């Protein structure tokens, strides 16, 4: 299966492994509120104006309202953490932990998560999140990316 972004899954792309249906349709069938473009763009617009062009870790943290989520690789192989909506990759070795923290405002939850073998995709619903080591320092994008991945 080709790599599918969480954005496509949420906004009407094929559900992985099924080839039919949409995530929005599945949400409607389950009684959950479907993902809509406005549901994403409203927090983005609000947070963009508050961030005032400072996309550094410190600028994002100034948005306040932090909600952390621990991500741990409890497997035996390298695990890719793919953070949306800006499409950044981070790689965890077995036993390694990172904290993904969402900042700012969002509609009804801070994160959406999808998993497939070897990869976790996290959508920060506020559109702004940081990835840190357990000691709180920033994990650089592309951290531990294997040679040859994404043109490297």
Explain briefly what this protein structure is.
This protein has 152 residues and is of the alpha+beta class.
Descriptors:
4-stranded mixed sheet, 3-stranded antiparallel sheet, 7 strands, 152 residues, alpha+beta
Question: What features would you describe in this structure?
Answer:
- With 152 residues, the chain is α+β, with helices and mostly antiparallel strands.
- Helices cover 22% and strands 26% of the residues.
- It has a four-stranded mixed beta sheet with strand order 3-2-6-5, with no helix packed on it. A three-stranded antiparallel beta sheet has the order 1-4-7.
- It starts with 5 loop residues before the first helix and ends in a 20-residue tail after the last strand.
């Amino acid at each position: 299966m080709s790599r599918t972004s969480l954005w496509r899954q949420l906004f009407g792309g094929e559900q992985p492994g099924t080839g039919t249906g949409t995530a929005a349709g599945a949400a409607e069938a389950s009684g959950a509120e479907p993902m809509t473009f406005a549901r994403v763009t409203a927090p983005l617009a609000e947070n963009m104006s508050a961030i005032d062009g400072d996309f550094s870790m410190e600028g994002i943290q100034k948005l306040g309202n932090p909600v952390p989520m621990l991500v741990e690789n409890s497997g035996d192989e390298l695990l890719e953490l793919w953070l949306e909506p800006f499409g950044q990759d981070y790689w965890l070795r077995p036993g390694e932990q990172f904290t993904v923290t969402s900042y700012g405002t969002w509609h009804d939850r801070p994160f959406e998560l999808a998993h497939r073998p070897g990869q976790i995709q996290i959508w920060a619903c506020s559109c702004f999140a940081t990835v840190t080591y357990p000691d709180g320092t920033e994990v650089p994008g592309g951290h531990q990316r294997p040679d040859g991945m994404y043109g490297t």
